[in-house]
Amino acid sequence: MTRSIHTTQMMTLRTWLYNERKAQNLPMRTLAKRLDRPHSFVQRVENGDRRLDVVEFVQYCQALNVDPRVGLELILYIE
To answer: How many Å apart are CA 23 and CA 17, to the nearest integer?
Structure first.
């Protein structure tokens, strides 16, 4: 198991979160407000400079109004 943020799974998850935000025409700053975080937090996640732990991932999905299980299904069987 690697702790690298640059795995296929992490890139897939980041892309999915980014695409979900963009599909909703949701600015980074608005998402950041929902998360009660600075907009740089969202930017760092989307750029791959910051990982989300499982609790943060669920909160991020809730702020986007998406089901976190969808994101997990996307990465579950990637090797």
So the answer is: 10
